[in-house]
Amino acid sequence: MARVWKPDPTASFARRLGKSAEELGHSDGRDACPDIWQLDNGDVAVIGRDLTSVYGSQLPEGVGIAPGERLVVIPGSMLSAAKPDIPEAP
Description:
The longest helix has 7 residues, at 76-82. The strands form 2 sheets. This protein has a 3-stranded antiparallel β-sheet, with helices on one face. A two-stranded antiparallel sheet has the order 4-5. Helix content is 12%, strand content 19%. With 90 residues, it is of the alpha+beta class. It has 2 helices and 5 strands.
């Protein structure tokens, strides 16, 4: 089955969605912390902990992780804080 969506590696970071990890208390101010960004093409980049190997065998029916994909986890409060910045679907 051919993939319908392909990420555009030339897209740039446009704006943070929500608050920074430091603002939410999920960072000690150093270099490694979760984040959510909208790219200039509308796609979203998520920086989180790679738990592909942990959750890969526990996925719900019909859910899969393709080669080249990773399952990342971010704090729930980060997504909640981003809600006002996420546009409604067309």
